[in-house]
From TrEMBL:
Origin species: Dechloromonas denitrificans
Cofactors named for this entry: Mg(2+)
Residues annotated for Mg(2+) 1 binding in this entry: 91, 113, 115
Complexes and interactors: Homotetramer.
Segments forming domain Fructose-1-6-bisphosphatase class I N-terminal: 5-198
Family, per entry: Belongs to the FBPase class 1 family.
Pathway(s) it belongs to: Carbohydrate biosynthesis
Binding site for substrate: 116-119, 212, 278
Superkingdom of origin organism: Bacteria
PANTHER family, per the entry: FRUCTOSE-1,6-BISPHOSPHATASE-RELATED, SEDOHEPTULOSE-1,7-BISPHOSPHATASE, CHLOROPLASTIC
InterPro entries for the chain: FBPase_C_dom, FBPase_class-1, FBPase_N, FBPtase
Positions that bind Mg(2+) 2: 113, 116, 284
One of the record's GO cellular component terms: cytosol
Protein name per UniProt: Fructose-1,6-bisphosphatase class 1
């Protein structure tokens, strides 16, 4: 059987369906190569000297791990020379990274969380890279990193591509260019991503939920109600027994939902209310919401569709409820009941 590589999949999307441009194809291939390089670094672990703290904090005041910094550098280096990008923004950088003057500029903006699930790096549990692609508005001011922030402040509906790599027992790339969701498996010997699943569909119903239960006392009433109803099992109003999973790597939790359905929640709670939520809109919630919707699921804050939010700032945080459509609709409904 002929293997369909990522390059071939993208070429077909470009040639037959006109879904993507040559530049977007190039951009996604470069991101995928960066993810391969990150996968190799992670695979070396202690032998590569890549585990542990970097000794610095990021813009959110979180301690950076060596692999956070390394993954960020890999993505920046891979993407700045190709001529396909206007600017990049990352969880690990306060301000956007402009394409250096010595390289040509392109029409796309790339945002990423270079290594999501940082708390799992040193304990050998799945982690990942999340990315989102936007078009740079005509005439955007890219003269300084400060001025460039405005170009990024577009709702998730404007994304032209989104994806994540999950570095688990297998390294996978899960991608949408707005035409369904495709999964690619990294063939480590060949060094290329091979298409292993197309048209991913998330079941509308589920019996599995993912939430950090240690925050229960801080949740709002609608989430309290929903989780209590799930825990009540067959005898409760939902009439079924639920199972719970929480990896604490969003990529791993979302990938489980892509594979067998489920609902993921990092809702608003009184502890994080002032900052608006835990997860970041532009490079965590938006790309995941696009992927989930493309696979037939739903993604809201409890009060609003995530993809409709117009961002006020680059590192904005939002509550996230996503996954199997009927369950997301139920808990979203509880927020307006
Ligand atoms: P990070 O980007 O600093 O790794 O934080 C995001 C992660 C998500 O991957 C995960 O869903 C969540 O934080 C886990 O949070 P908690 O440790 O509060 O359960
Ligand atoms: Mg993250």
């Amino acid at each position: 059987m002929v293997q369909r590589t990522l390059a071939r999949y993208l070429t077909e999307e470009q040639r037959n369906k006109g879904v993507i441009t040559a530049d977007l194809k190039f951009l996604i291939e470069i991101v995928s190569r960066a993810c391969q390089a990150i996968s190799v670094a992670i695979g070396k672990g202690s032998l590569g000297g890549v585990l542990g703290e970097a000794g610095s904090d990021n813009v959110q005041g979180e301690a950076q791990k060596k692999l956070d910094v390394l993954s960020n550098d890999i993505l920046l280096d891979a993407n700045e020379w190709g001529g396909h990008l206007a600017a990049m923004a990352s969880e690990e950088m306060d301000l956007p990274h402009l394409v250096p003057h010595r390289f040509p500029k392109g029409e796309y903006l790339l945002t990423f969380d270079p290594l999501d699930g940082s708390s799992n790096i040193d304990v050998n549990v799945s982690i990942g890279t999340i990315f989102s692609v936007l078009k740079c508005p005509e005439g955007a001011d890219l003269s300084t990193p400060e001025a460039a922030e405005a170009a990024f402040l577009q709702p998730g509906t404007a994304q032209v591509a989104a994806g994540y790599a999950v570095y688990g027992p297998t390294t996978l790339l899960v991608l949408t260019v707005g035409n369904g969701v495709a999964v690619f498996t990294l063939d480590r010997e060949q060094g290329s991503f091979i298409l292993t699943q197309e048209n991913v569909q998330i079941p509308a119903d589920t019996k599995e939920f993912a939430i950090n239960m240690s925050n229960q006392r801080f949740w709002e009433a609608p989430v309290q109600r929903y989780v209590a109803e799930m825990q009540a099992g067959k005898e409760g109003p939902l009439g079924k027994d639920y199972n719970m999973r929480w990896v604490a790597s969003m990529v791993a939790d979302v990938h489980r939902i892509m594979t067998r359905g489920g609902i993921f929640m990092y809702p608003l709670d009184s502890k994080i209310k002032a900052q608006g939520g835990k997860l970041r809109l532009m490079y965590e919630a938006n790309p995941m919401a696009m992927l989930i919707e493309q696979a037939g699921g739903a993604a809201t804050t409890g009060r609003q569709r995530i993809l409709d939010i117009v961002p006020g700032k680059l590192h904005q945080r939002v509550p996230v409820i996503l996954g199997s459509k009927n369950e997301v609709d139920r808990v979203t409904g509880y927020h307006s009941a």
